[in-house]
Amino acid sequence: MLQETTDHLDRAGKILRIAIVAVLGVFIVRLMYLQVIRGAEYLQRSETQAIKQRARIPSRGCMYDRNGVMIVRNEPAFTITLTPSDIDTTTFPFLARLLQMPLEQLRTIYARALPYRFQEVPIVRDAPLSIVAAIEEHYAELPGIEIRTDVKRRYLLRAHASHLFGYRAMVDERDLATKGDYYTLNDYIGKTGIEAAYEPFLRGRKGVQFVAVNAAGQPIERFNNGRSDIAAIEGADLYLSMDALLQEVAEEQMGNDHGAVVVLDPRNGEVLAFVSKPDYDLHPMETPAAGEYFAQLARDPNKPLFNRAMQTQYPPGSTWKMLVALAALHEGMIDERTTIHCPGSFTYGGRSFKCHGAHGTVDVRRAIQVSCNVFFYRLGQRIGIDNLYKYGTMFGFGQLTGIDIAGEKPGLLPSRAWFARRGVTGSLLDGRMVNLGIGQGELGVTPLQMAVYAAALANGGTLYQPHVVRAIYNKETGRMEKVAYGSVKLPLDPRYVRVVQEGMYAVCNVPGGTATNVRVDGVAVCGKTGTAQNPHGKDHSWFICYAPAEHPTIAMCVMVENAGFGATRAAPIARAILDAYFHPERYRDSSSAVSSVARAQLPPPRLMQ
Questions:
Q1: Cis bond leading into 84, ω under 30°?
Q2: Domain for residue 283, yes or no?
Q3: How high is the pLDDT of residue 185?
Q4: How many domains does the chain divide into?
Q5: Residues 357-372: pLDDT tens digits?
Q6: How far apart are CA 418 and CA 432, in angstroms?
Q7: Phi, psi for residue 338 in degrees, rounded to 5
């Protein structure tokens, strides 16, 4: 019995020893597998601390003119960034040398970035390849430093069009506070012009790339082989109403003068050209020196950043007279046969108000043709402030036109209440109406408003919302989507509108008109000159016009600061633009930027009706 028990224990011990050896063998084999066969892989995983999301920045939308000519495109660029939470500040002296940047400048950038500890903050934008190569070579020694592929704008016109396009700049703290969660300090954003107005379309939609990073915050490998990444969606392309040739001619004609040109299609409100002078070159805004360049522009006494086309308050001078005529006709204060005698001046309250000459007895057509001040001094008094405000408001003065360019101002159209707040009532207000009848006094309009006004006179009384963008090409859907804009049919009697149109025709086509120098081969032009008094210097030169007289297809306003008579400076600029519009073959030569810019490479996208 005792022997049997002993044998049983021996067998159990052998089985236990075998089991122990087997288990140890399994552990040894597994250890060898982990250490030898897959050791490198697990070493890398052990060094990996987290999965990091990296934004994938989409390409910004391009722009095309009305003829399908590409006028704004993108080019690749590199941005060097730092992430404050991952950076090793002891590398700064070495990093500054690689970036060819003063050490103190790098430390300043880092200090400003500290509140955004986990965001990539740009150090150098549009970095040259030599710097990119140096960073790549020492990448392992520079925790928290990244190289990001970016894009920069390339403008293909000889014309600047800077106030139309607008510029981009880096996102600042104000943008982060007001523009929602889309942006980080590593982003660009449209600041002015259509770059700002169409920012939500142009910017596209960011994607996300997931990467495994080590303790230094440096990427080790793509997470899940990229299958979890979210693709970026490119920004939409904008198809503009702007005619590249007219933009170029308008800028050339303005030269170094201060002022603005706005050219519209009176049939729909499309902007054919939009010029504010002085302007500036947009290309430096896309370089590492953008901040310094902007500061230089901001200090410039000529104020090239100021958009004179839609942020000014100029008195319109005699270009205002058609509005006064329409108010008087519609309110029954005159008819088309009413005459007023012009002896060369008008006396009111002991003060003599001069005219351009002694025009004799004139009716409303003749008064517009020769720009008779006496006729409109008297009409201003007859219609009074309330009717002036009524018809001025009807034509959109004192209000925003709603143009799709960021930064528009409404100008000033004074009302009875506006004057009353300033103590101007009774006879004092009656006296003001003398000047207001000829577009002087407490009245401020923008060249854009005057172009809309000219277009409404051209088309018989419809105010179209002016706009630059005709359609948006959505790259996600592959469809071209028309942009809808508003219009208002004004309650004007066609007979009275025709009377005013006939007066504007006489301005350019009948001897004695103030702009008979505006002639274009084969085209009848209708227009009105204006010379606006300027208390700060020489008078401003105005000219508004449209053509052809029957079935107009173009309307415009030209305003040149301190240039004297409208017929002397503004009208010849308009004549050149009209000539380019009706006879483009004379301007499309080898020296023109229009003939050399790249044509659209995309097939015509399908239009969404």
A1: no
A2: yes
A3: 78
A4: 1
A5: 899 999 999 999 999 9
A6: 13
A7: -60, 135
